[in-house]
């Protein structure tokens, strides 16, 4: 029997969330004219992240642009975020360690209703850039 070699790829580091990253992400969403920005505090309630940001973009193009802004802000803060859904622009998920950012088109956000799933008790009103 031949042993299977272990992967030499280093795991992606998951740095602890700094308030600066959350502030940068919120600022990048605000600057990009995101709508209905909500911050959900998950610290001590979930092991997946400490905070979740949920925002709406009016079109696929705006959702993609907002996601690119958040990714750039995370990289500037020293994070290596993972991104899913950027190609389509309906729902983009950005995983920056202990910060998850969901950016939706309005119809998709209404359909999935993450705020309800995570409970209104977790939600804090965020920045609304209307």
List the helices and strands and how they pair.
Blueprint: H1 19-31, E1 35-41, E2 51-56, H2 60-76, E3 82-84, E4 91-95, E5 99-104, H3 106-112, H4 114-118, E6 123-125
Parallel strand pairs: 2-5
Antiparallel strand pairs: 1-2, 1-6, 3-4, 4-5
Helix pairs in contact: 1-2
Walkthrough of the structure:
The protein contains 4 helices and 6 strands; from the N terminus they run αββαβββααβ. With 130 residues, it is of the alpha+beta class. The chain has a single domain (19-119), classed as 2-Layer Sandwich (Beta Polymerase, domain 2), CATH 3.30.460.10. A hairpin with a 6-residue loop joins strand 3 and strand 4. Helix 1 packs antiparallel against helix 2. The chain is globular. The relative contact order is 0.23.
What keywords describe this structure?
130 residues; alpha+beta; Beta Polymerase, domain 2; six-stranded mixed beta sheet; 4 helices; 23% strand
Report a brief summary of the structure.
This protein has 130 residues and is α+β, with helices and mostly antiparallel strands.
């Amino acid at each position: 029997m031949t042993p299977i070699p272990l992967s030499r790829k280093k795991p992606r580091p998951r740095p602890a969330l700094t308030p600066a990253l959350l502030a940068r992400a919120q600022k990048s969403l605000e600057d990009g004219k995101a709508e209905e920005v909500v911050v959900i505090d998950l610290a001590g309630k979930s092991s997946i992240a400490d905070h979740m940001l949920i925002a709406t973009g009016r079109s696929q193009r705006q959702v993609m642009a907002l996601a690119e802004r958040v990714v750039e802000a995370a990289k500037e803060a020293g994070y290596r975020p993972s991104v899913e859904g950027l190609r389509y622009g309906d729902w983009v998920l950005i995983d920056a360690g202990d910060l998850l950012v969901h950016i939706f088109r309005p119809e998709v956000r209404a359909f999935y209703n993450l705020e309800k799933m995570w409970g209104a008790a977790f939600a804090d009103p965020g920045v609304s850039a209307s």
